Each structure stands twice: as C-alpha cells, then as structure tokens.
Amino acid sequence: MGYVHVEIDACQSPRRVGGLCGDVVSWERTVRGTTIICCDGIGSGIRANVAATMTVSRLHELLRRDYSLREAMAGVAGTMAGIRGSDLPYACFTIARIANDGETTVLSYEMPPAIVISAKKFATVLPHRTLLLDNALVHESDCYVEPGEALMLVSDGVTQAGLGAGYAEGWGIEGACRYINGKLSTGLPLDKLSASVHFQAQNLSEEPGRLAQGDDCTVLLARCRQGRIVNVLTGPPADEEDDGAVVRRFMSLEGRKVVCGGTTAKIVARHTHTSVAVRQEASSLIAPPDYVLKDVDLATEGAVTLNQAYNIIDEDPGKYEKATGVSRLCELLREADRVLFLVGRKRNADHDNIAFRQRGILHRENIVPLLAEKLRRAGKLVTVEYL
User: What is the CATH number of the domain that holds 72?
Assistant: First the structure.
C-alpha cells in the first residue's frame, strides 16, 4: 500500500452562538502514523472547554511518553469513570490512530461510533467491541483505511441533533451515515463532507419545536491519500566503511530520492555501478550545477544548494529560477508530505574555507536542521538522521 498520508477536515460550532465550544479536536503526526483526538467536555462553555482541553493534553502527553493507545485510554477513561457525577471537569473522548500503512485503531469512551468511508464512496458505521479498562467501559474498533478512503469522528451534538423535532432519540449515528451516503451518491467530494454533515446537524437542531437545545457540535474527517515521500542524502558517512550500507539503504527507500553533494553523488555512483556527470544544460548564474545520476530523482551540489533552498523554500514558486538544482529541490520538498534527511558527518575541509563563512554558507549539519524546521512549520513530517 505504501505510505498513507492523512489530511484532516474539522467543523465545529458551540452550543450558543458566540460562546466557547466545549468540544476540542487535536491531531499529531509521528513517524508511526497520525493520532486524532475528538473530545467532548460535559456541559457547555468555558467549563466544558477546559475539561476537554485538559483531557486532550493528558492523552497526547501519555502517547508522547510511548504509552500504547489502550494504556493511554485506560489511564484517562479510568479517571473519568472515577469522577463521574462529581463537580470535577469531566469529558468523553475518542482516540484514533491511522498508521502509515493504513492500519487503524479507534478507542472511544462514551462517544458516538466512528464512520468509515470506503474508496467506493460508501459509508458504514464501524463495528466495535466493548472492553473494561481500569473500571471504564471502552469501545474499540479496528480497520484499514486506504488512499481514497476516510474515517469520520463526531461528538454527540451530531447524533443528538433533531432531538424532539421529528427525531425521538436524535439523528443518531445511523441517520448521519444515511445522510453521508446520500451526499456521496450525488458526487459530493470528501473534502466537502465534514462541512455538509455539520451543516445538516445544525439545521436539525434549529428546527422549531425541539425539546432540547442544540449542543456543541463537531465533525472531524480524516481523509487518506497516497503519501509523497522525499529522501535526501547529503554528505558521506563519518566512517568510510559505512558507504556501501548507507547507499544500499538509501536506494531501497520508498519515495523520491535526492542526493545533495558532489562527493556524495560519486559515492552513490560507485556503489550502484553507474556514473555521475554534470548536467550540461544548466545556465544559472546563481544556483550551483546539478548532476545526472541514474535512479536518483535529483542530484545537486551540497552545502550551497541546501543553503539556497532554505532561503527560498517559503517564497512564491513562481519566482524561482527555472530548472535549477535549487528550484527543483524546493519543488520536491514543497510537494512532500514526509521528508527524511540522511546527513553524513564526515567533515568537508573545503567548507572550513573563510570564503564559505564570508558568503554566509552554513555547514550541512547546521543548515539541515534549520531547513527541517521550516518544513515542519509547513506541516511536513520531517526526520533527520546522522550517519
């Protein structure tokens, strides 16, 4: 299947117009996958928002400390079960993790079931089993979501929509699912679906004659597509004996491949039994030359190219020089969802030349972290490994 990239659409509204929403959503991408949390603070307004925010923060912190989903769920759901009925901040929540291969686990505590949307554009309520974790009843579901498919999480502001206005028990998750299938059958694209479901829930809750006021309302849709990966190898490993292993690993990686550095390109060529040559049609007076290297998407000069890419990566691509190593590197990085930098630690004596410092060119071990941080701020998942 390859790397599955997750894009999130979230639509929310508070119980009262102008008020603070008591539902909180959050998501994080890691090297293992994307974790999504939808949390419903009980009550409304500030108190509910604080309860939901505290719950989301605690769940994320447990997961960052390498707790499993079940362990994190047990810790927080057990606390909630213990304070149920008290005056302490209380929240219900769902955690979903979509791994990089599409394997998905959903755990929920007193929240509506999830809805999964297949590549054939058909929605179904995800079946679940009930677990007892730390004295809390928890629902758990497993499935695979592939590119073109999606997972939807909602708060009870959706399932209880229309309560007392033609729906004795509210819209319900099955009603929402039927609505989704009706919209999908008309060709509604996935990226418009969360807004459509939210709009309909709001309409049902605003009908005259309802017995209960509307609630905080949240629809969160995780859309999956084939992820775009770029792998950048720059600089020789500290130990020359590792050259062959590094090249073999680099060439076996999934995704686009970029080599930054003339010496690095020669190492790759030597261990892949091919050759490297300067691209003759290069005409830029600013960007360094790039190279022709078989089975590599882009081969360029090293430190100068990385520095120049850092300088312009967040500029309008329409202003880039055409077909230079720097512009092509920027284009690949901008298109990527996930970037891996493999940075060799072998020192290049040429970079200690005072001319490099005078021109403001940073060593690769200094410029790569800066470039990586810019990419992270742009929403990329970036990993840097030193060799």
Answer: 3.60.40.10
